[in-house]
């Protein structure tokens, strides 16, 4: 199976570009949020400036009994200063108007009432002026400073306001882009030195170490001065790589040693087999001393050959993934008992207490090996204890809250302390002299491969192992 080689992203696809783009976008969004009220305030200020000119006209109106008699030499400068075509003055039910003589009054001017200070309305009207304010006539209504309760209306083209708003908006946009760019660049430089740069370095070193994990020079050298999260990550990763490097070296040494032991064990088994054949021939001699020693020799050779064969089988074991399928647990228990030489045993009774309709979902080969190993251990313990009356091995099933539990129990002598201390450890957990301890190691490996757990139960007499399988195994029964 080929493994895809990971690569560090290019300059336009890595964290740097994403970070600077995100920062610039956030700043621009903030600028937009600030820009709209600022635009509305600029428009209001512009309109208030025109309204102040109208206030000057109010004071003129107050000093003249009949506004209509004011000469053009007085009214035209007021109108031109305000950029207006007409000014209307309303007070105490009286309305006065001055306007340019050559201008036709519009029928429906666009209203800009400065007495309404709703912020959302001001923002909407500012945007409306930018989009629609090219050819309209504007009607400004408000109360200028010093005018008391008098209301002044100014009629004027909206195009000068729109032109000034466009200029103001363009300046704001330009300044916003500059601020966003400078801010993003400064933050990027800081982030590059404090965050992105170290992450890139860690990424490159991790990828290099992945390609050659047995190269000790590729182990990360952490920055001892950093006490933040990056420093903690560097030190943790360095420790992990150092442990992995040491483990791989040890694994390679163990693999080489295991290969050598396997070859030695294979040759040793052949020699022991030859010795067994010779011992069989020696056992046929009539010498009384030979007849007395031959059985012990044959027994010793049988144990040595069994030990060598067990080690070879363990070394050749393939860790294939489990394939779960519905299994008749009661029938499988009888098959395992037959393989473990429990069925038909002259002294030991096998009790299969699993119901007839019990079906679980599990790998049948794995579970058969597990039960066979446990049954074999129980049989050997009972065979080695002839003083036990009514020896038996029992298989039972229990339902748990999150799955199913199988219990294999016997009434034998129990496990010695050494076996309990090294339970499920290969070559260490044997309960009898000359054993390899591989049976329980294989049991744990196969049960865990199927998502379960195996444990030794506390009992007053004998030995009991519980196999807990996950909820998916409880198919029925």
From TrEMBL:
Stretches assigned to the HAMP domain: 193-249
One cellular component (GO) term of this entry: membrane
Enzyme class: transferase
Annotated Histidine kinase domain residues: 263-473
Main location: membrane
Lineage: superkingdom: Bacteria
Protein's name in the database: histidine kinase
Organism listed in the record: Pelagibacterium halotolerans (strain DSM 22347 / JCM 15775 / CGMCC 1.7692 / B2)
Organism phylogeny: Bacteria, Pseudomonadati, Pseudomonadota, Alphaproteobacteria, Hyphomicrobiales
């Amino acid at each position: 199976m080929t493994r895809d080689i990971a690569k560090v992203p290019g300059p336009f696809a890595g964290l740097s570009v994403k970070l600077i783009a995100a920062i610039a976008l956030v700043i621009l969004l903030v600028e937009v949020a600030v820009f709209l009220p600022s635009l509305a305030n600029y428009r209001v200020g512009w309109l208030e400036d025109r309204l102040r000119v109208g206030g000057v006209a109010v004071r003129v109106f107050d000093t003249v009994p009949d506004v209509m008699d004011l000469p053009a030499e007085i009214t035209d400068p007021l109108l031109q200063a305000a950029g207006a075509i007409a000014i209307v003055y309303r007070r105490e039910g009286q309305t006065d108007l001055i306007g340019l003589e050559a201008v036709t009054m519009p029928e429906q001017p666009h209203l800009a009432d400065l007495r309404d200070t709703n912020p959302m309305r001001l923002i909407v009207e500012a945007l409306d002026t930018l989009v629609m304010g090219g050819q309209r006539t504007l009607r400004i209504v408000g109360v200028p400073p010093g005018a008391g309760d008098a209301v002044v209306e100014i009629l004027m083209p909206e195009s000068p306001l729109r032109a000034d708003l466009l200029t103001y908006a363009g300046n704001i946009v330009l300044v916003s882009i500059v601020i966003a760019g400078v801010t993003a660049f400064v933050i990027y430089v800081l982030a590059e030195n404090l965050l992105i740069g170290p992450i890139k370095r860690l990424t490159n070193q991790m990828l290099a170490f992945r390609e050659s994990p047995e190269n000790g020079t590729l182990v990360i050298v952490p920055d001892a001065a950093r006490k933040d999260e990056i420093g903690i990550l560097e030190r943790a990763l360095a420790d992990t790589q150092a442990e992995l490097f040491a483990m791989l070296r040890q694994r390679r040494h163990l693999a080489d040693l295991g290969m050598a032991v396997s070859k030695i064990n294979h040759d040793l088994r052949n020699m022991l087999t030859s010795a067994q054949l010779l011992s069989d021939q020696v056992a046929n001699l009539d010498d009384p001393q030979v007849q007395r020693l031959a059985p012990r020799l044959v027994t010793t050779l049988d144990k040595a050959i069994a030990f060598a064969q067990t080690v070879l089988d363990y070394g050749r074991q393939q860790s294939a993934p489990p394939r779960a399928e519905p299994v008749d647990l009661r029938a499988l228990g009888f098959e395992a008992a037959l393989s473990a030489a429990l069925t038909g045993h002259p002294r030991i009774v096998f009790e299969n207490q699993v119901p007839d309709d019990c079906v679980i979902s599990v790998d049948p080969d794995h579970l058969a090996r597990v039960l066979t190993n446990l049954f074999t251990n129980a049989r050997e313990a009972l065979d080695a204890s002839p003083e036990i009356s009514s020896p038996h091995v029992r298989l039972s099933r229990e339902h748990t809250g999150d799955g199913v539990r199988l219990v294999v129990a016997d009434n034998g002598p129990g496990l010695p302390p050494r076996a309990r201390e090294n339970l499920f450890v290969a070559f260490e957990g044997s309960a009898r002299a000359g054993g390899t301890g591989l049976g329980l190691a294989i049991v744990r490996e196969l049960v865990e491969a199927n998502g379960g757990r195996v444990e030794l139960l506390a009992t007053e007499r004998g030995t009991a192992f519980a196999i807990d399988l996950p909820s998916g195994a409880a198919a029925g029964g």
